[in-house]
Specification:
alpha+beta, 10-stranded antiparallel β-sheet, 7-stranded antiparallel β-sheet, apoptosis, transmembrane helix, Reticulon-like protein
């Protein structure tokens, strides 16, 4: 069955890629600033130590160039816009429970109606409030959410708004036109209010496809560029007149400024129906239509005649409706086919969604006549119009931890399946299937069909508690495959079968109980035999199989920070007569759980917790041996400690729950402490000696034993829950051995009928070696004693951390302190962890310690362990509250109270308002609540739906105050209290509004462990499927998968061929490891290793390596986006910071390594045949694997390569690819941006440098090969900045001097040019004046000398030809020129041009 990890795509995929897919603009409740790292990033938060003035909630940020008209419009609009804070309290239909923010706007101020999106009004239970412009707040409730289109209507009480005049925005769908300028007014990106501008670009876009979950369809959308983001869902889109012309719904995810708005014709009709108290009828023929252009319709068979007719009827239309999905078994099934082009409906040409909706809504229960074109042929059909509300679920049932309702039209349309079947909207509790929370369709329960919700309820009502029944199901992503599982029905932790029905009058969902749970049938003894190991030569391994049982633990609520709701592993039977089993505490973390024990893979019996060790990671559980008729054997436990290098037989269970055996050697026995989980404290093993072995099976097997050749169990092989990785949010699990001698005292007490009451030192220790303790003040005498007492390990123990005392406890002055070195306890030298076991039965210990370099004698009290385990859990407003458990005390320095938040449910008030796991609650409404009793007393006084104050302290000791609103309808207070008189060991209490309690389950929304967050980020909750047997209907053989298998997404497969119980691969690995271990343990090797690792040279190398590592880390961490921007304000990439740090030699070692690597690569590329080597390695690898496979099959009958093949091929995780591609994009953009910055001379010096580099390279490339030019460029790039840095003062002084010289020369040239220019201008001006005067004189004299015409004859010229001088007949000489110059009249200016003076004076008039 495909799960969400490897899901098949739905039948009808969106043509839009994932990166281009639009997204709903909800704003998750994750942005409010809260103090402390462990505080959730959501909720209403106030800083206790300072007062924050209440800024206006709606702060209009108009576009910079908005006109006064737009500003006036926005001022009026914002008074009608509200910020919506809401929760969907439980999973329903397409959406899981959640908390989020969005926007809405008032559309009827008198009646109190708010318009928003359908994905805001929620298909399931809704709880929320809205905030107006003036910070007034009121509750809201949904009165209508459309079954298909993305709009909903909320209602509020107008009388609750007292300090501002309510104004409604009018809806004008007809005003939406292409080119209209618009403003989107809403709660964008978590801001109080933002105004985004845009212009409508399209009116005929198909509805956006959001992928999985709710999607609108059968409507056109309006497209515009506005760049809205999270939180703007439900915002009004207004025009300049202040009218709402569309409803904001979604936008692009890839950063493009494209938004999608819902037209308002259908929302307006729904609002008018509500205002007129009329029903909102909605019709459907269960067909999805798409707008497609005429050219595509022609290819589908639209004839030219019909195209002409449609264009004539609707001249402005360019597209028509085409059938996209026709649901099976719907009204149109068999009548309409995908690809049919819609021509007419009831004789009317139809090209718009709005008109089709109007006809369908008015024809519910009637018949429509449709004319279609199919492949060029006319097709006429008659269809009965169904009621859309009837196939939209308005109720769900919760039973055995899961939630169910009839399959909705939304989900059916999304996956193109028939609208029928029981849908699991939250697969939790007994119905936890294959690690997926939703998407399952139940076909039968207990081999009885469940076609609808009513039948399903009848079947479930008849099944007794704790029954195991067959469940048949399919997933919507893979309807071809039928899954079959065995589930365990839980009607004791979840006794009620509760039906929730939507009430549109009150806006709530009304809960009613149906039937009473049938008591569990008495258990019946069963018989079975254990498997026999074929081919295993170790008799001890074959016998120990009869001592293994499978242990499954199911937890109804998350406590103690444990991340999973169920876990399965293997335990070892230590007393078959009493039914005692020892199992890892990573499998059974606390006793508020159901334990089932499977014997011989056949008999299933119940178990109960007998003992949980506070430090050593094991739990002892018990089953009734009278119910098991099988040859179960008690495993003999060794009383002597194993030693390093000793041979042993490893028997474990791999990921397929198959027994694997390997003879191996104990490589090490060392003191370990499992790393603490920083984000959310949870149980971890400390102060223990862990055993490691040299077989590769040890990492594959989470449970098993180390057994000697005599069949005595030397150690348990257990899984240890570690820390959660911050990047992947996956929990680390360690596999280590625990020697059996430490278990024997506890086991003997339990076998004797006594409950172990251990006492422990409230501290965590770690090993220190003699070189360290000598410096810290331990005398040489004690060092010699340590060497004699423990020749194999010269070590002492130092106190790493002291457990925090109870909140009401007092510290003892004789207690240990962090940094103390423990020498003796009760006179015994402590050099091994096992020697601390003397504390278990002592009230106090006489300790000799070294503190501050001095020896001190102390009497150290021990701590009883009964107080460390959780015995009470309170669920309040969706938060799980408990007394701080042991792991909290181990990691914190002070307990602020005994009210500790351990987990919280999605969609709850605790989630919405930010009450996070790891917080301590210290007061309620100013009254201190040091413990759970006081807390219950105070919160019981708070009326329902009323705000109250919680004073809290984060795990980082930061005090803060959170305001929350109580919600008893969906989240009533309940409690689990340990009560050994009850069959389950716990008693459930439900608190009612009067404060009194009664037995039974809480009456609100379903709360399950799967829906809880224990802190520290999301985890792979469960990783465990409930199904014990899963049959694949399409497989040729039956495959069995465990109910609680780790990594349950992987099906069990057949293991590789075995030899002596091991695969060929394991044999090779084990042999190689054994040989390496022999070499490494040789004295010569040890001496050489010690010389190399502890000598002065090694210390120097370590220091230098550490410095180099730090510089490389510093260079890697420099990849952050710089605060500076380009000249045009464009942000830069993180590679700008990286290359600046690299080339500025801020980390010289890292830069030098980079430079050397680049140079070596250039030389290697030049002189080494790298490409040939790649091909050579490839053909050698392929040839060796092929030859090994062929020879292996020929010689041994099995291929060697096949034996070495991994169970699962490596895949590059999607997150890694996304990070890599993002990094590549940043790198490319770095070069693109830098090229443009250089090209457009943002830094002229850089542009000049680039010019010189390109100019020089242009000529060098003619004589220097490419690799040489690359080498030269690399040296310049790296060494240029280094030379400048080393000679910065000298270079800067020279540059400054050159700048001064250039400036002085530039000034001088400027002055000279100015002087010359001034003289030239004066000369030109003077000459121009002279020539103008002479021209005027010539013109005047010419007019005076021209006589009138007499008798038609011209007068005699006044100037005779003889008056002109003769033309020169020889070249002029200098003497002649001087003579001529002397003849010039004195009144002629000396600076007159020579060519004018040479002509002599003008003739007299």
């Amino acid at each position: 069955m495909a799960t969400n990890g490897d899901a098949r795509p739905k039948r009808k995929q969106s043509p839009v890629s994932f990166l281009d897919r639009p997204a709903k603009h909800l704003r998750p409740e994750t942005s409010a600033p809260t103090p402390g790292d462990a505080t959730p990033q959501n909720g209403t938060v106030y800083n206790v130590d300072s007062e924050i003035s209440a800024a206006p909630l709606l702060n209009p940020l108009a576009a910079p160039a908005d006109s006064p008209e737009w500003q006036a419009t926005i001022e009026n609009v914002v008074k009608s816009v509200v910020s919506i804070h809401f929760c969907q309290t439980c999973s329903f239909d397409t959406d899981l429970s959640m908390s989020s923010q969005a926007t809405g706007f008032v559309v009827d101020a008198e009646r109190g109606y708010i318009m928003t999106n359908r994905h805001v009004a929620c298909a399931g239970p809704f709880w929320g409030y809205c905030i107006f412009d003036n910070h007034e707040e009121c509750d809201i409730r949904p009165v209508y959410r459309d079954p298909v289109h993305d709009f909903g209507i909320l209602k509020f009480d107008p009388k609750a708004i007292k300090y501002m005049e309510l104004k409604a925005l009018s809806l004008r769908p007809d005003s939406a036109k292409v080119g209209v300028e618009i403003r989107v007014v809403g709660n964008d990106a978590g801001e109080k209010l933002s105004i985004l501008s845009g212009v409508i670009s399209r009116l005929d876009r198909n509805a956006p496809e959001y992928g999985e979950g709710y999607c609108d369809f059968n409507t056109n959308y309006i497209q515009a560029a506005a760049a809205a983001t999270g939180g703007s869902s439900g915002s009004p889109v207004v025009n300049l007149a202040g009218h709402t012309i569309a409803l904001q719904a979604g936008g692009r995810m890839d950063g493009a400024a494209t938004d999608y708005f819902l037209p308002l014709d259908r929302p307006l009709r729904a609002l008018q129906c509500i205002q007129n108290n009329e029903p909102i009828t909605r019709g459907t023929i269960q067909t999805q239509w798409m707008l497609k252009p005429f050219d595509e319709c022609r290819r589908l068979g639209l004839t030219p005649d019909w195209e002409s007719a449609i264009r004539a009827a609707a001249p402005k239309e360019t597209s028509v409706l085409v059938a996209e999905i026709v649901l099976p078994e719907g009204p149109a099934d068999g009548k309409i086919q995908e690809g049919d082009v819609l021509i007419k409906v009831n004789g009317e040409f139809l090209t718009r969604f709005g008109r089709l909706d109007a006809i369908l809504d008015a024809s519910v229960g009637k018949t429509l006549h449709l004319l279609l074109q199919r492949g060029g042929e006319d097709v006429e059909v008659r269809l009965d119009v169904g009621d859309l509300h009837a196939i939209t679920p308005d109720r769900f049932v919760t039973v055995a931890g899961g939630s169910f309702h009839n399959l909705s039209y939304q989900q059916a349309r999304l996956y193109a399946v028939a609208v029928k079947g029981v849908y699991i909207c939250e697969a939790a509790g007994s119905f936890k299937l294959e690690n997926t929370l939703s998407g399952w369709i139940v076909e039968s329960v207990d081999q009885r069909p469940t076609p609808d919700l009513e039948t399903f309820m009848k079947v479930m009502d008849s099944i007794p508690d704790k029954s195991r029944v067959v469940l048949s199901y399919r997933h919507l992503r893979d309807m071809h495959t039928r899954g079959t599982s065995i589930i365990h029905i839980d009607r004791h932790w979840h006794p009620k079968m509760r039906l929730a029905v939507r009430n549109d009058e009150t806006g709530l969902w009304d809960f009613t109980d149906h039937g009473k749970p049938k008591p569990a049938a008495p258990p019946v003894p069963r018989s079975a035999d254990f498997i026999q190991l074929d081919g295993v030569n170790h008799a001890a391994a074959a016998d120990i199989v009869c001592s293994f049982v499978r242990v499954s633990c199911n937890m109804p609520v998350k406590l103690d920070g444990y991340p999973q709701a169920r876990k399965t592993g293997f335990g070892l039977v230590i007393d078959a007569e009493k039914g005692l089993v020892v199992v890892s505490r990573a499998i059974v973390p606390y006793d508020l759980c159901d334990i089932t024990i499977t014997v011989a893979d056949s008999i299933i019996v119940e178990g109960k917790v007998i003992f949980m060790h506070p430090l050593q990671n094991y739990t002892i559980v018990q089953y009734d041996p009278k119910l098991v008729h099988a040859p179960v054997k008690s495993a003999p436990l060794s009383s002597t400690m194993v030693k390093q290098g000793e041979d042993t037989i490893f028997v474990g269970f791999n990921q397929n729950f198959r027994v694997v055996v390997a003879k191996t050697t104990i490589t090490d026995i060392t003191t370990v402490a499992i790393p603490a989980n920083a984000s959310a404290p949870r149980y971890r093993a400390i102060n223990l000696d862990a055993i490691t072995v040299d077989t590769g099976l040890s990492s594959q097997c989470s449970n098993g034993v180390l057994v000697g050749s005599d069949g005595i169990v030397q150690a348990l092989w257990l899984n240890y829950l570690g820390e959660r990785t911050p990047n992947t949010h996956k929990d680390v699990e360690y596999h280590l051995g625990l020697a059996t001698p430490s278990l024997l005292p506890v086991i003997s007490l339990i076998q004797g009928g006594h409950h172990p009451s251990l006492r422990i030192l409230n501290m965590e220790s770690y090993v220190v070696h003699m070189s360290q303790v000598r410096i810290m003040g331990v005398s040489e005498e004690w060092i010699q004693k340590v060497a004699q007492a423990n020749p194999s390990r010269h070590q002492l123990f130092m106190v790493r951390k002291i457990d925090c005392p109870p909140a009401s406890g007092e510290t003892n002055g004789q207690s240990l302190q962090e940094g103390d070195i423990i020498l003796t306890l009760n006179g015994k030298l402590i050099t091994r962890v096992s020697e601390f076991d003397i504390m278990y039965d002592q009230g106090a210990l006489d300790a000799l310690i070294v503190r501050g370099g001095k020896e001190m004698q102390l009497s150290i009290p021990t701590v009883p362990t009964e107080d460390l385990e959780t015995s009470r859990a309170l669920i309040f407003c969706g938060a799980v509250l408990q007394k701080p458990h042991h792991a909290v005390r181990q990691q914190i320095s002070k307990l602020h109270s005994e009210v500790y938040v351990s987990a919280r449910s999605r969609g709850s008030p605790a989630y919405q308002y930010g009450l996070a796991p790891t917080n301590f609650i210290t007061a309620v409404n100013g009254v201190k609540t040091p413990n759970l009793d006081e807390f219950v007393k105070e919160v019981s006084k708070i009326p329902d739906n009323t705000y109250f104050r919680l004073r809290a302290v984060t795990f980082d000791n930061v005090p803060w105050v959170v305001t929350m609103k109580k919600n008893d309808h969906y989240f009533p207070m309940s409690e689990y209290v340990k009560d050994l008189t009850q069959l389950s060991g716990w008693r459930t209490i439900s608190y009612h509004s009067a404060g009194k309690s009664s037995g039974g389950e809480s009456d609100g929304a379903p709360l399950t462990a799967e829906g809880m967050d224990e802190g520290g980020g999301e985890s792979d909750d469960g990783g465990e499927g409930e199904a014990e047997l899963i049959f694949r209907a399409h497989d040729f053989s039956t495959k069995f998968t465990s109910a609680d298998a780790t990594n349950s997404g992987h099906n069990q497969t057949q293991s590789a061929p075995t030899a002596n119980g091991n695969s060929f691969k394991d044999t090779m690995v084990n042999s190689t490891a054994a040989a390496m271990n022999t070499i490494s343990n040789h004295p010569l090797t040890q001496n050489a290793k010690e010389t190399l690792t502890q000598g002065p040279v090694a210390e120097s190398v370590k220091k230098e390596s550490a410095k180099t590592g730090n510089q490389l880390s510093g260079l890697a961490n420099s990849r952050v986006q710089p605060d500076s921007t380009a000249a045009n304000g464009q942000p830069l990439t993180h590679y700008h910071s990286f290359f600046y740090t690299l080339l500025s030699w801020a980390h010289p070692r890292a830069t030098a390594i980079s430079f050397a690597t680049s140079v070596i690569f250039i030389f290697a590329s030049r002189y080494l045949p790298l490409i040939r080597w790649v091909f050579k390695i490839a053909y050698l690898a392929f040839g060796v694997t092929a030859l090994a496979e062929i020879l292996g099959k020929f010689v041994m009958g099995t291929g060697v390569t096949t034996s070495l093949r991994p169970r699962k091929y490596y895949r590059v995780p999607k997150e890694t690819l996304e990070i890599f591609l993002d990094d590549v994009e940043q790198l490319i953009n770095f070069f693109v941006i830098e090229f443009q910055r250089i090209l457009f001379a943002e830094n002229p010096a850089a542009t000049v440098a680039a010019f010189l580099s390109a100019f020089i390279s242009y000529y060098l490339i003619k004589i220097v090969p490419l690799w040489g030019l690359t080498l030269l460029s690399t040296c310049v790039i790296y060494l240029g900045p280094l030379i400048y840095i080393k000679n910065k003062d000298a270079i800067d002084s020279q540059l400054e001097h050159a700048s001064e010289v250039i400036s002085a020369q530039t000034t001088q040239i400027k002055d000279i040019a100015g002087e010359r220019t001034s003289k030239g201008l004066e000369s030109v001006k003077h000459l121009t004046g002279e020539y103008a005067a002479k021209a005027q004189d010539l013109v005047g004299s010419a007019r005076q000398k021209v006589p009138a015409t007499v008798g038609g004859r011209q007068p005699k010229p006044a100037v005779q030809e003889s008056e002109f001088p003769a033309a020169p007949k020889s070249e002029p000489t200098q003497e002649k020129a001087q003579e001529k110059a002397q003849e010039v009249p004195q009144e002629v200016p000396q600076d007159q041009p020579q060519e004018q003076l040479a002509d002599g004076p003008l003739p007299a008039q």
